[in-house]
Amino acid sequence: MKTMSAAVCTLVMMTFLHLTPPVHGQSLEIGSRLEPFMDPFLIDEMDNTALRLHRPVPANLVLHNQPGYLPLYNGMSVIHDGPVYLLYYSAANRLGVLESHNGRDWFRPSVGLLTGNTPDTNLVKTTTSELMIPADEPLPEVFLDTRPGIPANQRYKAFTLDERGSTKVHCWVSGNGKIWEKYQDDPIIETRLYGAFDGFESMFWSGTENCYVLYIRYYLRGKTTEQGRRSIARMTSPDFKTWSQPRPMTFGNDGLTPPEHHYQNQTSPYFRAPHIYVALSSRFMQGRSAFDAEPERARHLKLARASQQVEDWLTSDISETVVMTTRGGTHYDRAFMEGFVRPGLGDENWTTRSNYALRGIVPTGPGEMSLYVSRHNALPSVHIRRYTLRLDGIGSVHASYQPGRMVTRPVTFIGSRLVINYSTSAAGSIRVGLLNRDGLPIPGFEINRCMPLIGDHLKQVVRWRDATDLSSLQSQPLRLEFEMQDADLYSLQFTP
Question: Which of 64, 85, 168, 395 has CB 3.0 to 4.6 Å from 162, enough for a Cys bridge?
Fold first, then answer.
């Protein structure tokens, strides 16, 4: 049975590999999918244009320490489930949950669990009214299982760890994400991979790959030291019971493991284009300090536990959030090597293990999406803050004031209209031309016949002088040519 399951998953992966860049002469079948420019997947030629990273904007404070509640350690994940948003975090190494109806304003839901004489009403519990996570136990991964046919009482899944000897992963299920019960007595995963699961992991059902996908942290053993860099491995399962062996991820154009540590990978499908998985990874610069030149600047930093003094580890490392993408398989694209959420102003943000993003990017308003970041780690001021971006606004094809050009690889599509998400300056513009596979203009859709696109729109139909209907070109390989000036192109999509 194990062999059959693995074969099924392998077949699915072979089918999925059409999403990798084609060899010469082949075309990309994008159908009617939204294609954001978070990676160079669609791009063939760039002349005076470039992929640009857009950094999220700080918004409201979501959670901070308050009297009467167990202290915050850091955030874990955010789940958007219809009209409900749930945010999971570590409350003194117990699992706490916040609730929201818009992703912006949060409250502690009443779960009904009492700990001692203090009502920690938002600590998740079991069906027997016990703490799901006892004190000082490893925290779980929590995700919403979107696999078709999942029973209502198993829509939410979490796993906890037994690290005695090998690492054993036990599964919990819930109908509402607040009250949980054991999925089965036996662990769903057991591994001896060095350093496996030592960090928040990422699990989800992939409708594109038709498998459960799990990204875990492990230690890459160095050649000269026993403990090497923290890196990422991937596991898959067709049924949540039979899992593949961990396979190391590769990174960037060269495929090499990056020199920095990746402490938490926080990988999940992008909600508008779930065939693309976005990793809000924690880049951990071990041994690098912002206080070496002025060590006295760290003296005012006090750990959350008053009995402790500033320890060396608090200021001996720096971390931030970077963004990576993958379209399945064992490779992360790193179109953007820059920091996505930098530490920023304030010494409190330059302490070890700060600036870690929670897993998940969610819609929070018309034209807006949000992510959430833990700041001021281990300090009394530790908190979780919301950050915002425009829809599809992680990256873009950017042109400066000097006009530029971008041409896509050959694509086939389904639909009758081309819609783009874009922004220009008052002096800028975008024009689009359609080319055949060989790069020759398609009559009626030449770039000089395109009505210039000027403004800032999330969903704008591209029009030519005498045509907008592209139905006759469906299933015919073509290239998209963009002429741009002082503009950003965030995504494109063919629609009915």
Answer: 168
Most confident of 125-134, 282-291, 433-442: 433-442
As a whole number of angstroms, the distance between CA 92 and CA 113 comes to 16
253 pLDDT band, cuts 50/70/90, is confident
Backbone angles phi, psi at 376, to 5 degrees: 55, 50
Rounded CA separation 140/89 (Å): 10
**Residue 349, Ramachandran bin (φ over 0: left; ψ between -120 and 50: alpha; else beta):** alpha
CB atoms within 10 A of CB 69: 18
Element containing residue 305 per DSSP (H, E): none
Q: Is the pLDDT of residue 492 over 90?
A: yes
Q: Tell me the whole-structure pTM to 2 decimals.
A: 0.91
Cβ atoms within 10 Å, residue 279: 26
Instruction: Name the least confident of 1-10, 20-29, 373-382.
Output: 1-10
Residue 34 CA to residue 37 CA, distance in Å, equals 10
Quote the longest CA-to-CA distance of the chain. Answer: 77
Fold of 57-390: Tachylectin-2; Chain A (2.115.10)
* Residue 341 DSSP label: B
CATH of 25-54+395-495, one of 2.120.10.30, 3.40.50.1820, 3.90.1570.30, 2.60.120.260: 2.60.120.260
Strand pairing report for 179-182 and 125-126: parallel
Please give the full DSSP string across 228-287, using - where no structure is assigned: -EEEEEEEEESSSSS-PPPEE-EETTT-PPPSSEES---EEEETTEEEEEEEEEEEEETT
CA 59, CA 211: separation in Å to the nearest integer? Answer: 35
H helix or E strand, kind and range, residue 13: helix 2-16
Q: Residue 294: what pLDDT?
A: 83
Q: What is the pLDDT of residue 93?
A: 76
Task: Indicate the pLDDT class of residue 226, thresholds 50, 70 and 90.
Answer: very low
What letter represents residue 465's amino acid? R
pLDDT at 11 over 90: no
Q: Which residues pair with 319 in a beta bridge?
A: 284
Q: Could you report how far apart the first and last alpha carbons of the chain are, in Å?
A: 43
Q: How far is CA 207 from CA 276, 303, 467, in A?
A: 11, 44, 35
Task: Evaluate if residue 6 carries a pLDDT over 50.
Answer: no
Identify the three-state secondary structure at position 446. Answer: coil
Domain extents in the chain: 25-54+395-495, 57-390
Alpha-carbon torsion 447, 451, 454, 458, what sign? negative
CA atoms within 13 A on the CB side of 54: 22
